[in-house]
Amino acid sequence: MHELDFQSWGRADDPAVVICTTEADSADWRACADVLAGAGRHVLMPALADAVDALPRLREALSALPTRPVLVAAGAWASEALKLFSGAQTPLFSGLVLVDPTGEAHAEVQINTPSLVVGQGADAAAFAEMLNVQPVSPSDAVADLNGSDALAAVLLGFLERCAPRQAVHYEAGSDARVLRDAMGCFATGVTVVTTRDENDQPIGLTANSFTSVSLDPPLILFCLAKASASLERFRAAPHFAVNVLHIGQQPTSGVFARPSSDRFQGVEWETWDSGAPILSNSLASFECDADQVVDAGDHLVFIGRVTRARFEPHRDPLLYFRGKYRRLHFS
Fold it and tell me: Does 264 have pLDDT greater than 60?
């Protein structure tokens, strides 16, 4: 018996999700797998062109997994997936999801695990009745979404209910890396903060520790590590600018995050009233007068009074989450 080939997304030590579909190479399923992996799931998608041949090999492969996965079975694989329950000596899954199921709903199969049916029509209704659940239509369950994003949203909601991830705890005095990882769970935008030094040369660096502070007066802030080579130049500057990056500016973020003597080379920029560099075509730019510098642990907090701003409302932001660049999945 030949082993199954699996496509894999995510970390192997994350909770597993096995997706059985004859359309494993479709863009929609791959996009859905990307979303699930980004949410902390290890997605496995086996090559299943022939259900009759693959079923015993799939059962063997699932039995070998270190933890019980959630099974997602699409289309004709819905009825085949139910056979895995009837033929297993021990439970193979922690949850079952049938997506647009077709074929015969086996009434004699007893499913003693959280279940979900995603789809519409007579087949979906028949499988939902057999599992004693209400069928869900992604477009109805998740407003303003469609396609793989809507399906991924429904799947993530189910996964968090039936197979929640185990939380990691930090206590004062323990590994600072754990605290850093906890802080990384707060998704942020990405900015490039800029100013000019005493020789009127442009200075800039990538930062995601940016937030609005007040509308009246108009204040914003960013944080800069005391170990930063640019710290004293920002501390001495009477003005600075914050440039919020859009998804097409990830290369720009990389340029300003790396050590370089001339980060502005090849980057289009301009100046407004104060002379602080404004990166052209950014999602938003804020020109500020320096207002306060606050000492805070291993960082300084720079608070600026906004004197001028510009933004482009039709672009998506560049996001940063858990140490990686991200894009918007859901609206």
Answer: yes
The string of DSSP letters for 172-183 reads TTS-HHHHHHHH
Residue 124, pLDDT above cutoff 50? yes
Tell me the pLDDT tens digit for each residue of 167-204.
Answer: 777 888 777 777 888 888 899 999 999 999 999 999 99
**Angstrom distances, CA of residue 230 to CA of 89, 91, 151, 203, 303:** 63, 58, 45, 8, 16
Distance CA 53, CA 33 (A): 24
CA distances for 200 relative to 17, 57, 196, 305, angstroms: 55, 68, 5, 21
- Residue 20: which region, alpha, beta or left (left: phi > 0; alpha: psi -120 to 50)? beta
Taking the alpha carbons at both ends of the chain, their separation in whole angstroms is: 45
Contact 243, 202 (CB under 8 A): no
Residue 103, pLDDT score: 82
Residue 314 pLDDT greater than 50, yes or no: yes
pLDDT of residue 331: 45
Q: Please give the full DSSP string across 207-244, using - where no structure is assigned.
A: E--EEEEEETTEEEEEEEETT-TTHHHHHH-SEEEEEE
Rg of the chain over Cα atoms, rounded to whole angstroms, equals 26
Q: In what order do the strands lie in the sheet with 319-321?
A: 188-189, 319-321, 324-326
Total Cβ atoms within 10 A of residue 223:
18
From CA 276, how far away is CA 263, in angstroms rounded? 15
The whole-angstrom separation of Cα 181 and Cα 167 is 12
